[in-house]
Structure formats: C-alpha cells, structure tokens
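chain below, 262 aa
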Amino acid sequence: MARILITGSAQGLGRGAATALIDDGHQVVVHARDPRREAALAELVRRGATVVVGDLASEQETRNVAAQINDLGRMDAIIHNAGVYGDSQPHPTPEGHPRTLAVNTLAPYLLTGLIQRPDRLIYLTSDMHRSGDDSLQDLDWSTRPWNGTQAYCDSKLFVTTLALAIARRWPGMISNAVDPGWVPTRMGGSGAPDNLEQGHMTQVWLAVTDASEADLNGKVWHHHQPVPAASAAHNPDFQNRLINRLAELTGLQFSDAPTKTF
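prediction:
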C-alpha cells in the first residue's frame, strides 16, 4: 500500500485519480482549495482519504498546505494535479503573480521544495507546453499584453521542465510529467474528445507501478506511453535558469542534496 498526495482533488482528473487509488487499497491524501470544495470530498473521506486545504494561488496558503502534509508524514508519491487554464485576465495573486503562473508552476515548485521528499513525483502538463516561451522574460506579464492561452502554455512548459530537472538533479527521485490529453473536465470542457478515465490512469500507474525505475524517470507520458517534450524542457541550461528564476520569485532555493529518508 502506498501513501499518495493528489493536489486539486475535488473534481475532474484529481478526483478520478484519488478514487482509483482508494479502490486499489492505497492511502490517499486529497487537497481542496477552500472549505466549500473540501465538502465535495466527503465521500472520499468516508472511504479513508485525508484532506488538506489551501489555495495554491497564494504563496502563504501553499506553504501552509506543505506544512499540513508534512504533519501527516512522508508521502510515497505526489501527483501535482491542480491547475488553471486560459484565464481571460491575469487575476493577480496576493504576491502579484498571474494566477496561471502561481497555480500551475509556482505552487508545484514550492510544494516540491517544502514537502518531505517522496519516492516519486508526477506533474500534470499538456501538449500545449510545446508552445511555451522559453525566454523567461516578464513571467508576471507586467509589460506585455495579457494572453491567457500563452500564459497557460508557458506555465506548462515550466512545470514540465521542473519535472525533468528534478529527475536529473535529485539522485534517487523518480520524477515525470503526464499529459492527460484533452479530456472532458471543467477545464477541458464537455466537448473534449479524449477519454476521461484514460486521462487519470497514467498518473495513477506512475505513482504505484513496480516497473523498472530506469524506464520511468525523466519523461513526459501520455496514456502510458512516453511522448516527445519541448526541447527546452530537456536542456540542462534552461532547467537551471528556470529553477533559479523560480527561486527568485518564491524565495525558496532548491538543494541538490541526496534524497533524505524520513
């Protein structure tokens, strides 16, 4: 039995992953943005899930979520599922960042750095990450006209790069990104053509599979198959520049020390 955290678990892909893992007998920690969405997790709680609560658009609340998780003890795997798509406006966070950047990139970065290291990390991406801007210029969109779709593409390039950078930089850590496809969630819309169940099963598999670790690390996956990632995401120089930039934005510097055992 594995112990697995899933962010953004109140509905959609996160809830599907949580349900599948509970069905298979695993211990699951689910996450809700606020108390109203926490109430939507009551059925999973009745089935044994534990809930942590906090808005990942807020750095302070994200840090609090990390503290809640650490209080529960070390996870075996973490699925960074929470995300937002295509905001028509930047919706600045309390720290002044666009919500898309905060939830899709900064929160996974903070949680990765603050939570006791698990054996496996899974980050949700999109094939749209291949259209992301790798210049790392004006990440807060303070000087350029807002483009919600481009901001989403950028955020997914960044979180994909984070996943691949962790696989390279942290010995002993298994880290991957998953493109779930265009699935009919609230984010994807009811007309999305991909299969919703297939959309969450790859991250479930990566969290608990006994397959060879050497075959699993540092890849982007779609429906149980590795798929090409943007060239920048594989580039160690870009990985380092991105992590340094995220450290500047969050005040959290990653360590490359070997994984601790807690």
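DSSP finds nine helices and eight strands in the chain. The first strand starts at residue 3 and ends at 6.
thats it, cya
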